[in-house]
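Hey Z.,

So I finally got round to the guanosine-5'-diphosphate thing we talked about over coffee. Here's the setup:
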Amino acid sequence: GFNCGIVGLPNVGKSTLFNALTNTSKAEAANYPFCTIEPNVGIVEVLDKRLYKIAEIVKPEKITPTTIEFVDIAGLVKGASKGEGLGNQFLANIRNVDAIAHVVRCFSDENVVHVDGSVNPLRDIETINLELVFKDIESIEKRLQKVFKQAKSGDKKARLEVEVLETLKEILERGERIYPYLEKLDEGKRVVKELSLLTAKPVMYIANVDEEGLFEDNEYVKQVKELAEKEEAPVVKICAKVEAELAELEKEEKEEFLKELGMEEPGLNAVIREGYKLLDLITFFTAGEQEVRAWTIKRGTKAPQAAGKIHSDIERGFIRAEVTKYEDLIREGSMQACKEKGLMKLEGKDYEVQDGDIIYFRFNV
Ligand code: GDP
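And the result:
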C-alpha cells in the first residue's frame, strides 16, 4: 500500500489527528513530548462517493473502499539529526514513508506546552525541515566519501555521481528541500532514490487550528499558507480536537455537529484527499455482483499491473481489460446498457488505467 507519515514537533496535535483518522485510541494523546514512541500505523478508508453510486447500480453483496496508510511518527525535536530525543529512530521511520503530512501548531492554548515556549509556525516548520536537511547532508557526505575514491581512479559513472551529489548538497546547504528540484534532476533522480533522501518526499502542511480558526484563517494559518505557496505544497486546515470529537460520533450526530460548525465534511476528508493527490494516486473500480471495490494505483499504471493489485494470477494471465467509464455507467444506468452502446472498451496490456475506470479483467488461469 501507499503511506503518509505524520510528522511535526511534539504537542502540535499529531496523535490527536492520527486517532481521529484511524478512529482508534491506540496512539495515546498526552500533553508531553515523546509520548508516541513507536510508529503507529493506521489503515484509513478513502472516502469516495463514486463507489457508492456504482454500488447503487450494481447492487453487490459487499462494498469495499480502498485504503491509505497513515503513520504517526514520534515527536521530532531540534537536534534530532544528531540523535537528540528519539531523533535517529524518528528519521529512520520517515525514510519508509512515501509522503509527509507535516502538522503545524496554529492554535494558542496555555494548557498545551510548546517545546520552544511559544507558538510560531514558521519557526516550527523550519526546525523540522532543517533536521531533515541535516540528515540528508549526512547521507550525501557518506555516499560522497565512497564514490569520490572511485571517481578519482577514473570511473566515469562515479564522476557523474559526484557531480550530482555536489549539486544536491548545495541545495541542502541553502536550507532547501530536494523535492521541488526533483523534476529537473534527470540522472539525479536515481541517486536521490537510492539514498532515499528525506527532503525528496512530497509534503503537505496540516495547519492545526482551534475552533475559531476554522471559520476564519488566523495569523498563524496565513503564515503557513504563504510559505506553502512558495514551496508549492498543499495546506489543509483542520482542528484536530474537533476531528477527534467528530470521529467518535454516529452518522446523524456527526452531520448535526458539522452543520453547527459550518463545515461540509470532516477536515479529515481533505487530509486523505490531499494525501492521495500528493502521492499521485488514482482509483479504479471493480464491480461484480459479489463485490464493488475501489483500488488504488499510481497514476500511469498499465492495465496488467493494475490487475496485479487484485491478484498476481490476474497480472500473469492477463488477456485484456474491459473498461467502462464511471460517468458512462451513471448516465446509462447499467453495465448492460454501456455494453450495448459500445461504451465498454477492450483494452490491452499497454493501456494506462484512468481515474474512475470500472474494469473487468479477462485472464488465463
Ligand atoms: P503530538 O505530541 O503532536 O502527538 O500532540 P497530541 O496530539 O498529543 O496533542 C498535544 C496536546 O494538544 C493534547 O493535550 C491535545 O489535546 C492538544 N491539542 C491537539 N490538537 C488541538 C487543537 O486543535 N486545539 C487545542 N486547543 N488543543 C489541541
